[in-house]
Write a structure and sequence with these properties.
With 1089 residues, this protein is mainly beta. Among the domains are: 105 residues, Sandwich (Immunoglobulin-like), CATH 2.60.40; 55 residues, no CATH class; 304 residues, no CATH class. 48% of the residues are buried. It is built from seven helices and 62 strands.
Length: 1089
């Protein structure tokens, strides 16, 4: 406890202000040792770097060890000068720095007159010779030229970064990181949402972005998470610059998907403009070399977009109860006898089912209308174009040689009124909107030649309201549904119809209503840098406050009904007669306000033991208290006492509908638990970091390595706004004999002798839950030659104490029925219990070749050979509560092999180029200014997991009757499911016959990730022509090709065993991360000055 207080005291001392997470200094650093002709160190040398675009100069003096560091350099091109009387001036021209660069530039003075100079071009090493980290930078020119994605969104350029992939949950994986283990920022302040994800729209258009810095491996103690992505916004310069552009797509530019009846229609435009320069007020103010501005606007426009709908719908005969064409025997649920001719009499068809069928299921219109097949209805539905717009404004001001300020505001707004499902009658979203904003304010002060301080404030805001087309109360009143919860709100919703088994029809559903995924973050950070002798010391801290507000409709607010073949022998016949096998309902949601703070402090020292050996030492402390709700709507179930725990003072908030004799509800302090958070805060999260960087011969080679501890971003949340404040119930399994739920009733009626499902309990959380951590390490060899960097790295990431969940109220798996077994809490259904203990291990070998732009050519090529093995990721649930070890498997999201290559080539013709450098104007306009850029990605497929839907074979899934619950679990595997490459087809990518239902009394023997999915083979290209009218005035015309050769990148096959779709591929969308759909071209016109 004493150590924690000391660390917090230091944090408060270095902060100028005070509220997940950090995204620290974005300045570049140049460091080195000054020596004379004999190799002796030279103190007292004045080192000055002047930014070529703004004219702002930053200077320092080499210390007694001859070491100098310039640590507050903005990204850009610099001229560096070293001066000392008696020596010739040392000058480095055109030294280009990116955000967070850490470059080495040793100064070797020569005796002579100061008026004479020693000039070097480029100067700083291509490799980072003073740190052990691994990362990369994408510049504004690369955003503009590389053909990586359609919308020019910055986030998709992460696909070109070695060791970065995207998980199935949408989170980005940095060298083995998983959800909640990476951080995203703009200009050094967070755009994370406080729960482990980030505000994606802030990483959209690129016109306002100077560069994107990605920290992939062994980030220093200044940074918290395993993975770091930072956007650096553009700022004005001493010259007025601007652009006006439009990128254009028409149907003629698109190929047709092999699964679509026609190619996509509709035109799209992506116009925008930018302008930046010095602030000039004639006769009032001249801001050159001092005050600058930059502004940009980008948007998307188009005519009506088209959604291709291809649901699977019932045959016309089936709609009338005629099942004479199928082999299944259709039984009468009342008598058990077969219906004559497999036809259900019209008088026995349920009116609710008929109304739902008539309203939502169209007749088949694709294929033979009398033969059932998947996707047997196809229709193209138009909808208005949904624009996404981004505004960006930045201002920079140099108060003096020692003080500089800047501020930036970014606002994105977009809508998405898509068709909610493939059923046309469900319609489009009535309202789908996202509004995100971020703000950064920064003040940097040079306190002395070797001391600097930087303060930053950041704000991030997000709101995402959704409202669907159909109103829930209107629909259930029309249908006459009985048994739903009382006092349901008048919001969008639908009675959801779901299917289990074969065949599987399109589910009747729509997006649940939400008033908005509303969150607001305030962040304060301060960073202090101090160069002392051979020590480059930095320390600082961050305080962040996060606010979440939610009002989200439960998935089954207006009822959910699942139909199988339990009663008639065929699922659609069960539906027509109104006999669901499983039903669910929910109660009206509550508005939840959640808050949490995050406190972080760090200290690091880059110690130059010798001119060629640097040790990176760092220690970080993080304190992330758990979420609280000022209205006291938190809750959890305590396993030790068997009671529901609520915050102190919250007993009055308990719903009057909650049965008082069902479970005892107590305040947290009565059990010795924290009165607000309910679980104890994790206070001992110290994260040491250690790195070495050694140059064995010259500045062109470095051997480096490091190891560090990294904690997850956000702590696990407990339940808010659920039981016991709003009643919650488990799903009800309708008995196979004497069913109690028949449409229009959706929930069993409380009557004498009638069993009603008990309320659900809130989840249970280990009151001593800790924040998971990862250990990351690397060994790397880098060499620079021929203006190119070569890198070979081994990277390892080991996650420990990952939180997962299991059913703490599960009986043991065996052949007995669930109701025949004892369990820890007989009154209650399943109890999800969150605790620590899961983990995984990532190992990768990476080779990379990278050349920055030199003599008209830049390129990067990297091959990653990786494997990630573990049991469960954050919050995942075990199948067998008594055997977590059987969850151990290969991670589906990490391909075994991934090869990325990208290049930019300025063709060497025209003025200033190798050939035709003296061409006249007409010849230069014709042959000069041509550019070619491309990217290539090849990767092996993801590892997919089969599931099968069957009556619970283990007796561990909750049911209140002798009818086993229908569960989805991994099957038995009796052979290799992966077919030889020559036998794979779209209709049979893998062999589903090797998977069978598990034997009674046990779980399936199939591991996770046993099916190998389709790989990626993607070529993109850009062809561009620049027409230069003056040195600073040009027109650019480009044609970009995505998937140039139209190589099909198949989506993943259906892995639900037992259905007609098992093993089938039904789309050629590849994966969104690589943007690998069918071929499209985009025409771009851009005017710059």
């Amino acid at each position: 406890m004493f150590k924690v207080r000391v660390v917090l005291l230091i944090l408060c001392a270095v902060l100028v202000g005070g509220g997940p997470l950090l995204a620290q200094s974005t300045f570049a650093t140049v460091t080195g040792t000054v020596t004379d002709p004999q190799g002796s160190v030279v103190p007292g040398v004045t080192i000055a770097a002047t930014n070529a675009e703004t004219g702002i100069e930053t200077s320092t003096i080499s210390n007694d060890a001859g070491v100098y560091t310039l640590g507050t350099l903005k990204e850009g091109t610099y001229t560096l000068r070293a001066n000392l009387p008696g020596f010739r001036e040392f000058v480095v021209e055109k030294m280009t720095l990116s955000a967070r660069d850490f470059r080495t530039l040793d100064v070797r003075l020569q005796i002579g007159e100061l008026s004479n100079s020693v000039e070097v071009v480029g100067g700083a090493t291509l490799i980072e010779a003073e740190t052990n980290r691994i990362g990369e930078t994408k510049t504004a020119e690369q955003f503009k030229l590389l053909p990586q994605n359609w919308f020019r969104f910055s986030i998709y350029y992460l696909a070109l970064t070695p060791n970065v992939t995207q998980g199935a949950d949408g989170s980005y994986r940095f060298a083995g990181s998983r959800a909640n283990q990476s951080q995203f920022s703009v200009d050094g302040t967070t755009v994370d949402d406080g729960e482990g994800s980030f505000l994606g729209p802030q990483y959209s258009y690129t016109e306002s972005i100077q560069e994107m810095r990605t920290g992939v491996v062994n980030n220093s103690a200044e940074f918290g998470a395993l993975g770091q992505a930072t956007l650096i916004s553009k700022s004005g310069t001493n010259r007025l610059h601007g652009s006006v552009f439009d990128y254009y797509v028409t149907p003629f530019f698109r190929a047709r998907s092999p699964f679509a009846a026609e190619r996509d229609t509709g035109m799209q435009h992506f116009p925008g403009f930018s302008i930046g320069g010095p602030v000039l007020l004639p006769k009032i103010y001249d801001g050159r070399n001092k005050t600058f501005f930059f502004a940009s606007y980008e948007t998307s426009r188009g005519n009506a977009a088209v959604d291709f709908l291809d649901p699977t719908v019932p045959l016309q005969a089936w709609r009338q109860g005629d099942f004479s064409g199928i082999p299944n025997v259709i039984r009468d649920p009342v008598t058990g006898e077969a219906f004559a001719g497999n036809r259900i009499p019209q008088s026995r068809l349920n009116q609710v089912a008929l109304k739902m069928q008539e309203r939502f299921y169209p007749l088949p219109n694709s294929g033979d209308p009398n033969v059932f097949d998947d996707d047997n209805y196809r229709e193209s539905k138009s909808r208005p174009w949904d624009p996404v717009s981004m505004w960006n404004l930045r201002g920079d001001h140099s108060l003096s040689e020692k003080d500089s300020l800047y501020g930036r505001l970014t606002w994105t707004r977009g809508s998405n009124r898509y068709h909610d499902t493939d059923l046309p009658a469900v319609g489009r979203m009535k309202k789908g909107q996202r509004d995100t904003r971020s703000l950064t304010l920064s003040w940097t002060r040079i306190l002395a030649a070797n001391i600097a301080n930087e303060f930053r404030y950041g704000l991030a805001f997000n709101n995402t309201p959704y409202e669907a087309n159909i109103r829930g109360k209107e629909l259930i009143d029309e249908l006459g549904i009985a048994g739903l919860a009382p006092e349901l709100p008048d919001i969008s919703g639908i009675l959801k119809i779901r299917w289990s088994g074969t065949p599987s029809f399109e589910e009747i559903e729509q997006t649940d209503y939400t008033s908005g995924y509303w969150n607001f973050s305030n962040q304060f950070q301060d960073h202090f840098s101090w160069l002392r002798g051979r020590h480059n010391i930095k320390f600082g801290g961050t305080i962040t406050r996060v606010h979440f507000r939610e009002y989200n409709a439960d998935d089954c607010l207006f009822g959910c009904a699942t139909f199988s073949d339990r009663y008639t022998g065929f699922s659609y016949a069960d539906f027509l007669m109104g006999y669901p096998s499983t039903v669910e309902r929910a109660f009206a949601p509550l508005t939840v306000n959640r808050f949490r703070n995050a406190y972080e402090a760090y200290v690091l020292d880059d110690l130059k033991l010798t001119p060629r050996l640097t040790v990176n030492l760092g220690l970080r402390y993080e304190y992330h208290p758990y979420w609280t709700d000022p209205n006291g709507l938190a809750s959890m179930f305590d396993l030790a006492s068997g009671k529901i725990v609520v915050p102190d003072g919250s007993l009055a908030q308990v719903s009057p509908l909650f049965p008082g004799d069902f479970a005892e509800i107590v305040e947290a302090s009565s059990l010795g638990l924290p009165g607000k958070t309910l679980i104890r805060n994790d206070r001992n999260n110290f994260a040491p970091r250690l790195g070495l960087a050694y140059r064995p011969g010259n500045d062109n080679t470095v051997v480096k390595g490091g190891i560090g501890v990294y904690y997850d971003n956000a702590p696990r949340g407990i339940a808010f706004g659920g039981s016991p404040y709003a009643l919650d119930e488990p799903a009800y399994e309708n008995p196979a004999t004497n069913p109690t739920v028949i449409f229009p009733r959706l929930w069993p009626e409380a009557a004498p002798g009638q069993e009603v499902p008990p309320p659900a309990l809130p989840a249970s959380v280990n009151p001593n839950l800790v924040i998971p951590y990862s250990l990351q390490y690397n060994v790397t060899l880098e060499h620079a030659r021929w203006e190119t960097t070569f890198r070979l790295s081994y990277i390892g990431t080991a996650a420990r104490k990952v939180d997962y969940r299991y059913d703490a109220n599960s009986p043991v798996p065996d052949e007995r029925l669930y109701i025949e077994k004892t369990r820890p809490f007989p009154k209650y259904a399943a109890i999800d219990y969150y605790t620590n203990g899961a983990g995984h291990q990532y190992n990768a070998l990476t080779t990379e070749v990278e050349r920055p732009m030199a003599r008209g050519l830049s390129f990067q090529s990297a091959w990653v050979w990786a494997r990630d093995i573990g049991d469960l990721s954050r919050g995942q649930r075990t199948e067998n509560p008594f055997d977590r070890a059987r969850e151990r498997s290969v991670s589906m999201d990490v391909p075994t092999h991934r090869w990325n290559t990208n290049f930019i080539y300025l063709l060497p013709f025209g003025k200033g180029m190798t050939f035709l450098s003296g061409a006249n104007r007409p010849l230069d306009l014709l042959l000069g200014g041509w550019e070619l850029a491309g990217s290539f990605t090849a990767a092996t497929g993801r590892f997919l997991t089969p599931t099968i839907s069957v009556p619970d074979p283990t007796g561990t899934a909750y049911t209140s009757s002798s009818t086993p619950a229908t569960v989805s679990l991994r099957p038995d595997m009796i052979g290799d499911p992966n077919l030889p490459a020559g036998e794979r087809t779209l209709g049979r990518w893998f062999d589903p016959t090797v998977f069978v239902a598990p034997a009674q009394g046990r779980f399936g023997n199939s591991a996770k990730g046993v099916i190998k999915g389709p790989g990626v083979n993607l070529w993109n290209a850009t062809f561009a022509k620049n027409f230069r009218f003056r040195e600073d005035l040009r027109l650019r015309v480009e044609l970009m090709a995505r998937n140039l050769f139209n190589h099909p990148n198949w989506s993943e096959p259906n892995t639900t065993i037992g259905g007609s779709r098992a093993g089938k591929i039904s789309a050629a969308d590849g994966n969104w991360y690589d943007f690998s759909q069918v071929r499209q071209f985009r025409l771009g016109v851009r005017f710059e000055w």
